[in-house]
UniProtKB/TrEMBL annotation:
Keywords: Acetylation, ATP-binding, Ligase, Nucleotide-binding. InterPro entries: Ac_CoA_lig, ACAS_N, AMP-bd_C, AMP-bd_C_sf, AMP-binding_CS, AMP-dep_synth/lig_dom, ANL_N_sf. Its EC number is 6.2.1.1. Residues 531-612 form the AMP-binding enzyme C-terminal domain. One of its GO terms (molecular function) is ATP binding. This is Acetate--CoA ligase. Residues 29-81 form the Acetyl-coenzyme A synthetase N-terminal domain. GO terms for cellular component: cytosol. It comes from Agrococcus carbonis. Pfam families: ACAS_N, AMP-binding, AMP-binding_C. It is an enzyme of class 6 (ligase). Belongs to the ATP-dependent AMP-binding enzyme family. GO terms for biological process: acetyl-CoA biosynthetic process from acetate.
Length: 649
């Protein structure tokens, strides 16, 4: 991380927006003024872009740390994302150009998606799902995943999407915490040239009794062999064929829960972040329009996130669909069958707007620009990134090689908790600084504070906070009010503590410096050190474990574990075997994304005299750096022994 920060601090290049964008979106500039004059009035105007059943009369009710936005209004989120566009005469507009990994394709218009969601709403109701019930969605990038989310929204059920790479125990943990009664999954889906089974993971997750799941709805995709439980399992296509086509949507209050999405925190247990309806939809659609300078009639937008993460929720499903956007959706990985794949897709559909993660950009860089050159990328006019700080080199490469040296690159900072983009350039307006997320979007107030809660001076670093509530903010942690208060509001009172370090530059613009807590960011995915540590110590052979996020040139950070084995385990296995066994153990227990890059078997762990593991020193060791301050170390011999071992390796 420190190299990366040094680069950020010396970056001085600037890129003005292209003239043609500026002219077209002059109004974006005025949004800042409007929001400054009357912040709540500004958000009310944005909210009125949605279709309301009952208009709201109050904008914000703020009882820190609880906000209600537009709360006496009612609307239906799915109607806003679907029926509204059909009613406006845009039913023939393509909603999704879907590309399966083996090369099969589907085109779904807004009319098609609306029809699918109406039927599915009937299916869900037929299976006994009612407003407020929770539905777990364990699906990869299939159009049915989008339909599943919107069908829940249509009937007021609360979805909780679980990333398809998560293990049975992780899926079960989320099902139980949310109290889900239905799971929607698939037999399997394509990934890296093979069918990756998902239904068996659901079966495994539900094997032990004690859960509340009554039905499992299964999308047929992989055509792989799966077990079937007649009392519980239903094929999606069969249920859809039997369901009525019409479905009358009912409006729900603005603050009706929309979804729960689990994310890693500083303790071992993931937090169920709760989002509600109208405020969330207002800010996701507003930011999607203005950050990306959206032209819904002509743009083809491709966000490469998985719908199991918040970026998929906010910038594939809700924001873009509320805006009637035409999108590309892709199953599988970018390097299958060849590394030309993403660029061929951009050429095929004339993608104008591409939104991806720094880790993907660094992977493209590593593979080399030759892969991009056989495709025509001239349709691209706006590029975006999200998920972790982007190093200026990757930013400039992205603009030059993918963007032909002319496209703006917007670096968007936000979190599962914030629901929508908070800090970002606006493509048509802002003069860009590579590596900086720059300025809060209109209507958002953030600051960088020192530990005592005072704003830092321009040029200094500190902790990032949101100083005012915002429409798409989390409404709580599912079932855990105490943790909600403690995590986000204890530190600075009624200011939201994001958990990120940041620096204000001489212009007062914001540069993100990474997490300040024990959360790692691996390929843009949040992982908790505590969660991986508890997985490691749950293994029979492990006496103690410490996990750190070490800087990695491609994935941003990588999981590195230091493990003390029990005597028996040291006897039965070589060190290499033990390391391999433990890497696989974590991958199986949590999911492949959590598999440590390295496991080091060590005789002891460096601790302070009060017994706290000194992760800072472990990070230094993992990154091959000279050790920082060791004065609080209880026993210098411990790090000497580890260093010895590192030199030996
Ligand atoms: C990090 C993803 C720097 C940050 C939308 C945050 C970023 C965490 C950026 C949230 C960015 C996200 N620049 N860091 N543009 N975007 N982050 O909840 O540390 O998966 O706290 O949401 O990712 O990750 P989450």
């Amino acid at each position: 991380m420190s190299d990366h920060i040094d680069h950020l601090l010396t970056e001085t290049r600037r890129f003005a927006p292209p003239q043609e964008l500026r002219g077209a979106s002059a109004t974006s500039d005025e949004l800042y003024d409007r929001a400054k004059q009357d912040r709540l009035g500004f958000w009310a105007e944005q909210a009125r872009e949605l279709q309301w059943e009952t208009p709201f009369t109050e904008v914000l009710d703020w009882q820190p740390p609880h906000a209600k936005w537009f709360h006496d209004g009612t609307l239906n989120v799915a109607v806003n994302c679907l029926d509204r566009h059909v009613d406006a005469g845009n039913g023939d507009r393509v909603a999704f150009h879907w590309e399966g990994e083996p090369g099969d394709r589907r085109t779904l218009t807004y009319a098609d998606m609306t029809a699918e969601v109406k039927r599915l709403a009937n299916v869900l109701e037929g299976l006994g799902v009612r407003a407020g019930d929770r539905v777990a969605i364990y699906l990869p990038m299939l159009p049915e995943a989008i339909a599943a989310m919107l069908a829940c929204a249509r009937i007021g059920a609360v979805h909780t999407a679980v990333f398809g790479g998560f293990s049975p125990s992780n899926l079960r943990g989320r099902i139980d915490d949310a109290g889900a009664t239905l799971v929607i999954t698939t037999d399997g889906a394509w990934r890296k040239g093979k069918v990756f089974p998902l239904k068996p993971t659901v079966d495994e997750a539900l094997r032990e009794p004690g859960h509340g799941v009554r039905n499992v709805l299964v999308v047929k995709r992989g055509e792989n062999e799966i077990d079937w439980d007649d009392s519980r399992d239903t094929w999606y296509h069969e249920a859809m064929a039997a369901a009525p086509a019409e479905h009358v949507a009912q409006a729900f209050p603005a603050e009706h829960p929309l979804f729960i999405l689990y994310t890693s925190g500083t303790t071992g247990r993931p937090k169920g972040i709760l989002h509600t309806s109208a405020g969330y939809l207002t800010q996701t659609s507003f930011t999607h329009r203005h950050v990306f300078d959206l032209k819904p009639e002509s743009d083809v937008y491709w966000c490469t996130a998985d719908i199991g993460w918040v970026t998929g929720h906010s910038y594939i499903v809700y924001g873009p669909m509320a805006n009637g956007t035409t999108q590309v959706m892709h199953e599988g990985t970018f390097d299958t069958p060849t590394p030309e794949r993403p660029w061929q897709i951009i050429e095929r559909y004339g993608v104008t707007t591409f939104y991806t993660a720094p880790t993907a950009i660094r992977t493209f860089m590593k593979l080399g620009r030759q892969h991009t050159q056989s495709s025509d990328l001239s349709s691209l006019r706006v590029l975006g990134t999200v998920g972790e700080p982007i190093n200026p080199e990757a930013w400039v490469w992205y603009r030059e090689v993918i963007g032909g040296g002319t496209t703006p690159v917007v670096d968007t900072w936000w979190q599962t908790e914030t629901g929508a983009i908070m800090i970002s350039a606006l493509a048509a307006v802002t003069t860009l600084k590579p590596g900086s997320a720059q300025v809060p979007i209109p209507g958002i107030e953030v600051d960088v504070l020192d530990d005592s809660g005072q704003p830092v001076a321009d040029g200094d670093g500190g902790l990032l906070v949101a100083t005012e509530p915002w429409p798409s903010m989390l409404r709580g942690i599912w079932g855990d009010e105490e943790r909600y208060r403690e995590t986000y509001w204890e530190k600075f009172g009624d200011k939201y503590f994001a958990g990120d370090g940041a620096r204000k530059d001489e212009d007062g613009e914001i540069w993100l410096l990474g997490r300040v807590d024990d959360v790692m960011n691996v390929s843009g995915h949040r992982l908790s050190t505590a969660e991986i540590e508890s997985s490691l110590v749950a293994h029979d052979g492990v006496a103690e474990a410490a996990v750190v996020g070490a800087t990695d040139a491609t994935t941003g950070q990588a999981v590195v574990a230091f493990v003390i084995l029990k005597q028996s385990a040291s006897r039965d296995h070589t060190i290499e075997e033990a390391e391999q066994i433990l890497r696989e153990h974590v991958a199986k227990d949590i999911g492949a994304i959590a598999r440590p890059r390295q496991v080091f078997i060590v005789p002891d762990l460096p601790k302070t005299r009060s017994g706290k593991i000194m992760r800072r020193l472990l990070r230094d060791l993992a990154e091959g750096r000279a050790l920082g301050d060791t004065t609080t170390l209880a026993d210098q011999g411990v790090v000497d022994a580890i260093q010895q071992q590192f030199r030996g390796a």
